[in-house]
Amino acid sequence: MSAAPDAAQLMGMLLKIVNAKKTIEIGVYTGYSLLLTALSIPDDGKIVAIDINRETYEIGLPIIRKAGVEHKIDFIESQAIPVLDKLLKNLKSEGSFDFAFVDANKDDYMNYHERILKLVKVGGLIIYDNTLWRGTVALPEEAVSEDRRDSRRSIIEFNKSIAIDHRLEISLAPCGDGMTICRRIC
Ligand SMILES: C[S@@+](CC[C@H](N)C(=O)[O-])C[C@H]1O[C@@H](n2cnc3c(N)ncnc32)[C@H](O)[C@@H]1O
Description:
Blueprint: H1 5-17, E1 22-26, H2 32-40, E2 46-51, H3 54-66, E3 73-77, H4 80-89, E4 97-102, H5 109-119, E5 120-129, H6 146-163, E6 168-173, E7 179-184
Parallel strand pairs: 1-2, 1-4, 2-3, 4-5
Antiparallel strand pairs: 5-7, 6-7
Helix pairs in contact: 1-2, 4-5
The structure holds S-adenosylmethionine (SAM).
S-adenosylmethionine is lined by residues 1-2, 26-29, 32-33, 50-53, 56, 79-80, 103-105, 108.
Protein backbone atom coordinates (compact mmCIF):
# COMPACT_ATOMS: atom_id res chain seq x y z
CA MET A 1 0.00 0.00 0.00
CA SER A 2 3.08 2.22 -0.07
CA ALA A 3 1.88 4.69 -2.67
CA ALA A 4 -1.84 4.69 -1.97
CA PRO A 5 -3.08 7.47 0.30
CA ASP A 6 -6.72 6.33 0.02
CA ALA A 7 -5.79 2.85 1.28
CA ALA A 8 -3.71 4.34 4.09
CA GLN A 9 -6.57 6.58 5.15
CA LEU A 10 -8.96 3.61 5.23
CA MET A 11 -6.56 1.50 7.25
CA GLY A 12 -5.96 4.27 9.78
CA MET A 13 -9.70 4.69 10.16
CA LEU A 14 -10.28 0.94 10.65
CA LEU A 15 -7.56 0.72 13.30
CA LYS A 16 -9.29 3.48 15.23
CA ILE A 17 -12.83 2.13 14.75
CA VAL A 18 -11.89 -1.22 16.33
CA ASN A 19 -9.69 0.46 18.98
CA ALA A 20 -6.82 -1.74 17.90
CA LYS A 21 -4.14 -2.07 20.54
CA LYS A 22 -2.33 -5.30 19.66
CA THR A 23 -1.62 -5.80 15.98
CA ILE A 24 0.48 -7.89 13.63
CA GLU A 25 1.91 -6.94 10.24
CA ILE A 26 3.36 -9.31 7.66
CA GLY A 27 5.47 -7.46 5.08
CA VAL A 28 7.00 -4.23 6.37
CA TYR A 29 9.35 -3.05 3.61
CA THR A 30 10.38 0.51 4.59
CA GLY A 31 7.60 0.78 7.16
CA TYR A 32 4.97 3.04 5.59
CA SER A 33 1.98 0.98 6.76
CA LEU A 34 3.84 0.17 9.98
CA LEU A 35 4.25 3.86 10.79
CA LEU A 36 0.61 4.46 9.98
CA THR A 37 -0.40 1.65 12.35
CA ALA A 38 1.94 2.85 15.08
CA LEU A 39 0.44 6.33 14.86
CA SER A 40 -3.12 4.97 14.95
CA ILE A 41 -2.88 2.77 18.06
CA PRO A 42 -2.54 3.95 21.67
CA ASP A 43 0.81 4.72 23.28
CA ASP A 44 0.84 1.34 25.08
CA GLY A 45 -0.19 -0.52 21.90
CA LYS A 46 2.06 -3.19 20.34
CA ILE A 47 2.78 -4.28 16.78
CA VAL A 48 4.51 -7.54 15.88
CA ALA A 49 6.09 -6.61 12.53
CA ILE A 50 7.60 -9.36 10.40
CA ASP A 51 9.74 -9.08 7.28
CA ILE A 52 12.50 -11.17 5.73
CA ASN A 53 14.57 -8.02 5.22
CA ARG A 54 15.68 -5.83 8.10
CA GLU A 55 17.66 -3.53 5.80
CA THR A 56 14.55 -2.01 4.21
CA TYR A 57 12.94 -1.59 7.65
CA GLU A 58 16.02 0.34 8.73
CA ILE A 59 15.60 2.79 5.85
CA GLY A 60 12.33 3.99 7.37
CA LEU A 61 13.37 3.58 11.00
CA PRO A 62 14.61 7.18 11.46
CA ILE A 63 11.13 8.43 10.52
CA ILE A 64 9.53 5.97 12.95
CA ARG A 65 11.91 7.25 15.66
CA LYS A 66 11.19 10.87 14.78
CA ALA A 67 7.47 10.12 15.15
CA GLY A 68 8.17 8.75 18.65
CA VAL A 69 6.52 5.38 18.06
CA GLU A 70 9.41 2.89 17.92
CA HIS A 71 8.56 1.58 21.40
CA LYS A 72 5.31 0.11 20.01
CA ILE A 73 7.11 -2.04 17.43
CA ASP A 74 8.57 -5.51 17.84
CA PHE A 75 10.32 -6.02 14.48
CA ILE A 76 11.20 -9.62 13.65
CA GLU A 77 13.44 -10.37 10.68
CA SER A 78 12.21 -13.73 9.44
CA GLN A 79 10.03 -15.63 7.07
CA ALA A 80 6.55 -15.01 8.42
CA ILE A 81 5.27 -18.58 8.74
CA PRO A 82 7.74 -19.79 11.41
CA VAL A 83 7.01 -16.67 13.47
CA LEU A 84 3.25 -17.24 13.22
CA ASP A 85 3.72 -20.91 14.16
CA LYS A 86 5.84 -19.91 17.16
CA LEU A 87 3.20 -17.43 18.30
CA LEU A 88 0.55 -20.12 17.97
CA LYS A 89 2.52 -22.50 20.20
CA ASN A 90 1.85 -20.07 23.01
CA LEU A 91 -1.84 -20.57 23.74
CA LYS A 92 -2.06 -17.06 25.19
CA SER A 93 -1.47 -15.65 21.68
CA GLU A 94 -4.59 -17.27 20.26
CA GLY A 95 -7.30 -14.69 19.79
CA SER A 96 -5.13 -12.01 21.34
CA PHE A 97 -4.65 -9.67 18.35
CA ASP A 98 -7.14 -6.95 17.47
CA PHE A 99 -5.88 -6.33 13.96
CA ALA A 100 -3.64 -7.86 11.30
CA PHE A 101 -2.27 -6.42 8.08
CA VAL A 102 -0.96 -8.84 5.47
CA ASP A 103 1.14 -7.36 2.66
CA ALA A 104 3.89 -9.88 1.83
CA ASN A 105 4.34 -12.59 -0.82
CA LYS A 106 0.98 -13.32 -2.40
CA ASP A 107 1.53 -17.07 -2.89
CA ASP A 108 1.44 -17.55 0.90
CA TYR A 109 -1.74 -15.56 1.64
CA MET A 110 -3.73 -18.77 2.19
CA ASN A 111 -1.05 -20.11 4.55
CA TYR A 112 -1.01 -16.82 6.44
CA HIS A 113 -4.79 -16.77 6.60
CA GLU A 114 -5.20 -20.03 8.50
CA ARG A 115 -2.67 -18.92 11.10
CA ILE A 116 -3.69 -15.27 11.40
CA LEU A 117 -7.32 -16.26 11.84
CA LYS A 118 -6.37 -18.11 15.02
CA LEU A 119 -4.32 -15.18 16.30
CA VAL A 120 -6.95 -12.47 15.75
CA LYS A 121 -9.83 -12.34 18.22
CA VAL A 122 -13.47 -12.79 17.24
CA GLY A 123 -14.57 -9.31 16.14
CA GLY A 124 -11.00 -8.42 15.12
CA LEU A 125 -9.96 -7.38 11.62
CA ILE A 126 -7.56 -8.86 9.09
CA ILE A 127 -6.64 -6.73 6.08
CA TYR A 128 -5.15 -8.30 2.96
CA ASP A 129 -3.46 -5.89 0.57
CA ASN A 130 -3.20 -6.13 -3.23
CA THR A 131 -6.28 -8.30 -3.69
CA LEU A 132 -7.05 -6.65 -7.04
CA TRP A 133 -3.45 -7.12 -8.19
CA ARG A 134 -3.61 -4.00 -10.37
CA GLY A 135 -6.93 -5.13 -11.81
CA THR A 136 -5.39 -8.26 -13.33
CA VAL A 137 -7.70 -10.53 -11.31
CA ALA A 138 -10.47 -9.44 -13.71
CA LEU A 139 -8.43 -9.98 -16.88
CA PRO A 140 -7.86 -13.16 -18.90
CA GLU A 141 -4.46 -14.64 -18.16
CA GLU A 142 -3.17 -13.91 -21.70
CA ALA A 143 -3.66 -10.18 -21.08
CA VAL A 144 -1.34 -10.25 -18.04
CA SER A 145 2.43 -9.97 -18.23
CA GLU A 146 4.18 -13.24 -17.48
CA ASP A 147 5.92 -11.97 -14.36
CA ARG A 148 2.55 -11.22 -12.72
CA ARG A 149 0.72 -14.42 -13.65
CA ASP A 150 1.69 -16.66 -10.73
CA SER A 151 0.77 -14.04 -8.14
CA ARG A 152 -2.44 -13.26 -10.04
CA ARG A 153 -3.41 -16.95 -9.84
CA SER A 154 -2.62 -17.08 -6.12
CA ILE A 155 -4.67 -13.95 -5.46
CA ILE A 156 -7.65 -15.25 -7.45
CA GLU A 157 -7.59 -18.55 -5.53
CA PHE A 158 -7.23 -16.66 -2.26
CA ASN A 159 -10.11 -14.27 -3.08
CA LYS A 160 -12.37 -17.21 -3.99
CA SER A 161 -11.51 -19.06 -0.84
CA ILE A 162 -12.11 -16.21 1.62
CA ALA A 163 -15.35 -15.26 -0.17
CA ILE A 164 -16.88 -18.55 1.05
CA ASP A 165 -15.13 -18.69 4.42
CA HIS A 166 -17.93 -18.90 7.00
CA ARG A 167 -15.58 -17.70 9.77
CA LEU A 168 -15.43 -14.22 8.20
CA GLU A 169 -17.37 -11.27 6.93
CA ILE A 170 -15.47 -9.64 4.10
CA SER A 171 -15.48 -6.51 2.01
CA LEU A 172 -13.08 -5.86 -0.86
CA ALA A 173 -12.39 -2.13 -0.85
CA PRO A 174 -11.38 -0.90 -4.33
CA CYS A 175 -8.77 1.50 -3.07
CA GLY A 176 -5.03 1.36 -3.62
CA ASP A 177 -4.40 -2.05 -5.17
CA GLY A 178 -7.45 -3.56 -3.51
CA MET A 179 -7.71 -4.17 0.21
CA THR A 180 -9.85 -7.00 1.52
CA ILE A 181 -11.20 -6.27 4.98
CA CYS A 182 -12.07 -9.44 6.91
CA ARG A 183 -13.88 -9.47 10.23
CA ARG A 184 -13.54 -12.67 12.21
CA ILE A 185 -17.02 -13.72 13.30
CA CYS A 186 -16.37 -17.13 14.88
C1 LIG B 1 4.79 -4.77 -0.53
S1 LIG B 1 6.10 -4.86 0.60
C2 LIG B 1 5.34 -4.31 2.10
C3 LIG B 1 4.95 -2.88 2.07
C4 LIG B 1 4.50 -2.32 3.38
N1 LIG B 1 3.43 -3.09 4.01
C5 LIG B 1 4.03 -0.89 3.17
O1 LIG B 1 2.83 -0.65 3.01
O2 LIG B 1 4.88 0.00 3.14
C6 LIG B 1 6.27 -6.59 0.83
C7 LIG B 1 7.28 -6.99 1.87
O3 LIG B 1 7.07 -8.37 2.17
C8 LIG B 1 8.32 -8.94 2.53
N2 LIG B 1 8.21 -10.39 2.37
C9 LIG B 1 8.16 -11.10 1.22
N3 LIG B 1 8.06 -12.41 1.48
C10 LIG B 1 8.03 -12.54 2.84
C11 LIG B 1 7.93 -13.65 3.72
N4 LIG B 1 7.85 -14.91 3.25
N5 LIG B 1 7.92 -13.41 5.05
C12 LIG B 1 8.01 -12.14 5.53
N6 LIG B 1 8.11 -11.05 4.74
C13 LIG B 1 8.12 -11.24 3.41
C14 LIG B 1 9.30 -8.28 1.56
O4 LIG B 1 10.61 -8.35 2.07
C15 LIG B 1 8.74 -6.85 1.45
O5 LIG B 1 9.42 -5.98 2.31
